[in-house]
Amino acid sequence: MTSLAGKTALITGAGRGLGRQHGLTLAERGASVIVHDIAGDAAEETAGMIRKAGGEARVVGCDITDVAAIKETFGALGTVDIVVNNAGTHEARLIEAISAAEFKNMMDVHVKGAFFTVQTLLPDMKERRGGKIINTASAWGQCGWHTDSHYCGAKAAILGLTKAWAKEFAPWGIRVNAVSPGVVMTEMTRLNRTDEEIRDLAEKHIPIGRLGLPEDISNAVAYLASSEADFITGQVLPVNGGEFIVGI
Ligand SMILES: NC(=O)c1ccc[n+]([C@@H]2O[C@H](COP(=O)([O-])OP(=O)(O)OC[C@H]3O[C@@H](n4cnc5c(N)ncnc54)[C@H](O)[C@@H]3O)[C@@H](O)[C@H]2O)c1
């Protein structure tokens, strides 16, 4: 198991779903975890789970779409070695049904949130000449989907940020990568599908024969956060059971 002992990891949107599991997995590997979410009770619950498992956790809260709040909250954190930009939102909509406000919120949560989180934490990382940034892309941002084009567009932007930041920050030893999950069993996924649709999807479309589990994504995040991935930067790691195999 990769060790993250002595590292501090900020995970945005860690009140439930993938972010919660990232917290548990990174703490299990020795990282001290900063659990962030807009939902304070949920973040406290995640921190409680981490502590119960023997890990170290503290909680911060802010709306990831609010740049002033990001600056105030994350600017006061002190050393952060690992940043996992995970906070997200999703709505299954056709283009005609997406309002300007919904489009803006989708871009703000995913793109603006990650951008200003990194802008805030970067000066300290540069000064310490190191750090790992792990963004959350999506198979749909790489391959597209027949609904949710605002979500696909936001996730495609994450690919661009990942590659640009990898080049921009490399002189300071800061590595930037992304995980790109397929369909993973979280509340976000369940909201949009019936049990029958989920079974059907797994059996017919995912070669490995099941949907992803949060642990599948967290293990990839832990690897990218570790020193074992020190020669990897600017890459997008798909974790999807073979459902989406992106061409060479
Ligand atoms: N679940 C999947 O199948 C899947 C697939 C591909 C990518 N992803 C991505 O993985 C990430 C996590 O997904 P999930 O399934 O765990 O989602 P989720 O909805 O279960 O959790 C998202 C978390 O982000 C927080 N959040 C949302 N808006 C916020 C805001 N404005 N400020 C602060 N926090 C906010 C929520 O409170 C929630 O705790 C997202 O970026 C998502 O797009 C998920």
Describe this structure in words.
This protein is an alpha/beta fold. It has a single domain, classed as Rossmann fold. Helices cover 47% and strands 15% of the residues. The chain contains 9 helices and 7 strands. The protein has a 7-stranded parallel β-sheet, sandwiched between helices. Helix 1 links the parallel strand 1 (8-11) and strand 2 (32-36). Helix 1 (17-28) runs parallel beside helix 2, helix 3 (67-74) runs parallel beside helix 4 and helix 4 runs parallel beside helix 6 (149-169). It is globular and about 45 Å long. The mean pLDDT is 95.
Q: Strand pairing plus helix content: what structural class?
A: alpha/beta
Ions and ligands: nicotinamide-adenine-dinucleotide
Q: How are strands sequenced across the largest beta sheet?
A: 3-2-1-4-5-6-7
- Based on the structure given, which CATH architecture is correct? 3-Layer(aba) Sandwich
Instruction: Tell me the strand percentage band.
Output: 5-15%
Number of DSSP helical runs: 9
**Rounded average pLDDT:** 95
CATH class: Alpha Beta
Q: Spans with pLDDT under 50 lasting ≥5 residues?
A: none
Radius of gyration: 17 Å
Q: Tell me, what's the shape?
A: globular
The CATH superfamily appears as NAD(P)-binding Rossmann-like Domain
Proportion of residues in helical segments: 40-55%
Q: How far is the N terminus from the C terminus? A: 30 Å
